[in-house]
Amino acid sequence: MLFQIILVIAAILLGGGSGYALRKIQSKKSADQSENRAEKILAEAKAKQQEILQETKTREQEVLIQAKEKALKMIDEAKQDEQSRRRDLQDQQRRLEKRESLFDQKILEVEDKKTKLEEKTKEIENVKQKITQIKEEQSAKLQEIAEMNKEQAEQKLLRTIEQDSQESLMSRLRKLEQDNEEELEIKSRKILSLALTRYASCVCSDTTTTAVELPNDEMKGRIIGKEGRNIKAIETLTGTEIIVDDTPELITISGFSPIRRQVAKRALDELIKDGRIHPARIEEAIANAKKTIAKDLRKAGEEALYQLGIPVSSIDPKLISILGRMKYRTSYGQNALQHSIEVGTIAGMIAEELGADVFICKKGGLFHDIGKAVDHDMQGAHPEIGYNIMKKFGFPEELCYQSIAHHEDRPRTIEGAVVKAADAISGARPGARKQSLEQFIQRMEELERTASSFEGVEKAYAIQAGREVRVFVQPEKIDDLTAYRLAKDVATKIEAELSYPGEVKVTVIRETRVIEFAK
Predict the structure, then answer these.
(1) Which tens digits make up the pLDDT trace of 270-286?
(2) 3-class DSSP state of 4
(3) Which of 399, 434, 469 is the last residue before a domain boundary?
(4) In CATH, what number is assigned to the domain containing residue 278?
(5) Separation between Cα atoms, residue 485 and residue 496, nearest integer Å
């Protein structure tokens, strides 16, 4: 058993040694093969390296050759450019030299001409001095002969010419003026007739008093109240005066402001209808009347805009209410709102005939007197107040100007002249306005006083309700030509200083009477 074990161990050892020897031999053999392969690969790599180095050198040589060729070519091109630039510079230099020589030559020519002109100027001045001297000598001789100086001779000559041609000048002026007046009158009548035949409105004259009807005379005592407290309350709250007289079943409200009179009238109507009249109820009735009047003003302003075709939405509501206030405003008895509607309508029609701006004429005519709606509460004349109001509400300048244009002698725009003419037509037509006796007499006296203020006027009379002034002059002081000028001066002064509706005709009368008695 032990022997077998030994044999097995020996066999194992022998087999392991032989296997180790075999593996060692194989390992050596494979190592030799690997070395041979590595040497072979290294040799191939060296060969390829040599080939690559050879190709690289060849390529570098080619690139160097091409670069040298390009460099030589660029050098040649640069040389050619330089040569061409040098030639251009040489050409420019030659041209400049040629121009300089031409300029020098021209400068010399100009200097020569200047010298010659200076010499000629001196000669001309010398000749002028000689001519002036000769004229002075001749003038002195003429003055010695005529025994008068130059100014006296001119004045005498002008007087002689004026005297000789006075009649012809006067007749010529009259003829020209007559022709112009006839032509303009024909054209104006045609335009106005076309405009007026298309529009007609009612005429009503307002007054500064308002009547309130009473159911019976007992109501007068109730309106007056105990110790006059009711009537005092009404007058204080409305700013009007209540006149209670012997007129049966009627009391009168007097006041300068139509709106205040209307508030008082409506409040009294409400109190009379209600029957309760005491200070507290009076305050309530007046407050209700003011609210009603405010609505009425707004409605009146909107109706005026509708009549003229102006969109209500384009006008500020506050301005519409201000326009409606003119319903209770009068001018010489003429309702201001109705007058403004008439002016806007007539101005639009005239503008259509003349080719003016119809919209500006209509709108300007409606708002031309807007200042009268608040002139009781503000200082200043109504044209300026109206201009400021329209400016405040964003109206353009040409529209705001209509408030001033209708009171200017010569409006600067055709629309202003149209509105001025329409205003005169509306205010001057028969029945539109009326004056008190005191105002009428005062206007007649002012016309006569203005016409009599000129030198040479003997007497002056205002006739035809102040629409004509006849001026009698002294014939020994005023000749025919001066009479013509006097009529112009009187008319101009009346336009500048007086206010009047329509137009005033000025007639200057020069009369010479020669009386002799046969005995």
Answers:
(1) 888 888 888 888 888 88
(2) helix
(3) 434
(4) 3.30.1370.10
(5) 17
Q: What share of the chain is helix, strand, coil (3-state, %, to 5)?
A: 70, 5, 20
Q: CA 389, CA 319: separation in Å to the nearest integer?
A: 8
Cα–Cα distances in Å, from 421 out to 310, 352, 355?
Answer: 21, 14, 15
Q: Is residue 363 a contact partner of residue 344, using CB atoms and an 8 Å limit?
A: yes
Residue that finishes a domain, picked among 392, 418, 434: 434
Distance from C-alpha of 195 to C-alpha of 190, rounded to nearest angstrom? 9
* Total tally of structural domains belonging to the chain: 3
Mean pLDDT for 72-93 is 87
Is the separation of the CB atoms in 230 and 267 below 8 Å?
no
Instruction: Supply the range of the domain harboring residue 497.
Output: 437-510
Q: Where are the alpha helices (DSSP H) in 147-216?
A: 150-197
Q: What is the pLDDT of residue 3?
A: 64
Pairing of strands 505-510, 468-473: parallel
Residues 493 and 466 in one domain: yes
CB 324 within 8 A of CB 296: yes
Asked whether residue 317 falls in the same domain as residue 418, the answer is yes
10 Å CB burial of residue 425 (0-12, 13-18, 19+) is: buried
For residue 41, what are the CA distances in angstroms to 32, 45, 55, 136, 517?
Answer: 14, 6, 21, 135, 174
Cα angle 346-349-355, degrees, rounded to a multiple of 5:
135
